[in-house]
Amino acid sequence: MSARISGVDLPRSKRGVVALTYLYGIGKSLSKKILCYVGINENKKVENWSDDDISKIRKYISDYVKIEGELRSEIQFNIKRLMDIGCYIGTRHRKGLPLRGQKTKNNCRTRKGRKKTVANKKKVTK
Fold first, then answer.
1. Which of 42, 38, 37, 53 is closest to 18 using CA atoms?
2. Contact 115, 106 (CB under 8 A)
3. Backbone φ and ψ of 59, nearest 5°
4. What class has domain 4-64?
5. Which helix (H) or strand (E) holds 99?
6. Is 68 buried (19+), middle (13-18) or exposed (0-12) by CB count in 10 A?
7. Pick from 71, 23, 73, 15: nearest CA to 47
8. Domain spans of the chain?
9. What is the pLDDT along the chain (126 residues), one digit of tens a residue?
């Protein structure tokens, strides 16, 4: 039986700390906090978790942590709000440019996409 938390199957052969990071919105530090609060050794592999352990983790996450779809929708709502109020970061989102002060002359291809070559105007000959 594999551990399934909020629609995500956790890998059985990994340690608990690493396995919880497969959930969107949970990193290593939050994963350690969850396992410490629930009282499970962080080095214990997922395949060795009991059903009681899994239910404790599931309950803690549902009560105190925003993950997966709920977190994704909140992030999208925040981006939309920034675009609606027209602040600097919102306009950068709208234009598809980097948000946090990076230079855009040479790099930032991840945000801008593939190069779009612009042809030069031809000179008029007399």
1. 42
2. no
3. -65, -45
4. mainly alpha
5. none
6. middle
7. 15
8. 4-64, 69-112
9. 578 888 899 999 999 999 999 999 999 999 999 999 999 998 999 999 999 999 999 999 999 999 988 999 999 999 999 999 999 999 999 999 999 988 888 888 888 888 888 887 778 777
Confidence (pTM): 0.75
Residue 84 sits at φ, ψ, to 5 deg, of -70, -40
DSSP collapsed to 3 states, 12-81: CCCEHHHHHCCCCCCCHHHHHHHHHHHCCCCCCEHHHCCHHHHHHHHHHHHHHCCCHHHHHHHHHHHHHH
Q: Which of 54, 48, 71, 50 minimizes the C-alpha distance to 20?
A: 54
Domain 69-112 has CATH 1.20.5.440: no
